[in-house]
Amino acid sequence: xxxxxxxxxxxxxxxxxxxxxxxxxxxxxxxxxxxxxxxxxxxxxxxxxxxxxxxxxxxxxxxxxxxxxxxxxxxxxxxxxxxxxxxxxxxxxxxxxxxxxxxxxxxxxxxxxxxxxxxxxxxxxxxxxxxxxxxxxxxxxxxxxxxxxxxxxxxxxxxxxxxxxxxxxxxxxxxxxxxxxxxxxxxxxxxxxxxxxxxxxxxxxxxxxxxxxxxxxxxxxxxxxxxxxxxxxxxxxxxxxxxxxxxxxxxxxxxxxxxxxxxxxxxxxxxxxxxxxxxxxxxxxxxxxxxxxxxxxxxxxxxxxxxxxxxxxxxxxxxxxxxxxxxxxxxxxxxxxxxxxxxxxxxxxxxxxxxxxxxxxxxxxxxxxxxxxxxxxxxxxxxxxxxxxxxxxxxxxxxxxxxxxxxxxxxxxxxxxxxxxxxxxxxxxxxxxxxxxxxxx
Length: 441
Known about the structure:
CATH topology: Amino acid/polyamine transporter I
CATH superfamily: Amino acid/polyamine transporter I
Distance between the termini: 40 Å
Radius of gyration: 21 Å
Number of helices: 17
Mean pLDDT: 88
Order of helices and strands: HHHHHHHHHHHHHHHHH
């Protein structure tokens, strides 16, 4: 349950904001196509991600995989990408909290609430992961229930009373099939972050069972929620307005004209954002802590709080970065950098699956889970991730180039400077004797 709550809690906010930019890029039909096609990407990713994660010597998801399959430079890059994927996600969440509170009164300023939301969740993570995961169960459950309430408030099941007007509100494929490629980028927002469940595995009692079950159930929850979200929002709000909304589900609730539904979706949007930011702070800080512990970055960040047993320096260090990007007010830009970081991780993870199967064929080591139909899931992830990056170029080429430049400069810093301080004995300490010698090595 904790793993489901952490995974869905991070991602459920994608039902409340961000996904609707798919409509601006590809139209209403392009949006739902992107939702389902990108869902296939994440189903494929979870298949082989779970196989590799089930045999890793330590928790940490793709970061741990890179450590033992690709080496220090790849581990550094994937660690950085994971950190910024979640830091940007937390920034986007805080931004929406500030913006939706402005609907109460035009006199309300968003910036103080951006700061307060990040500060509160940072303090919560500082105090311990168990409280963090328990809070996410409550926030995630309540937020998901508000989506279901909105659905039934429209009386979609009654042809004579239904408020859903898809034929009047939607706009098909205004940019043709090329628009679908552009929509892929924000289609990721429905699911982005579900793979982060592995980063809290060290706190699980039964990692081998909890991770695959939590991830699969979480993804099914998100696919159902994404379909409901598209259906309700597209049937209540005109496509030209929906495609640029900061809080599309709340706008859909306003379109019903029912005060109780509006109030519930107001609360649901805030809770979803807080649950997401809460999980993102947990995941990003643990990735940063792991990199420091493994000497990929300065070791000062690997300190553990003597009382709360949390990576408190990593948690506090990343806080101002999230606040700074939340201050920009540029929701689609912040989301884009998060999505770019995630897509690069997916490409490297798919490559690692090929290498993992070559190094350790089926039967050579015990696996908690074996991904079916290899190599097709990895190939699907490579093709769809590359297609999404290509579509991103049409609308956000400056963000794309800036992201590549950032990771290139970070890699140069690591190769020319930080690699001299790398302690290989500490880097592979957890798994040095865990596996047999791989095939061909």
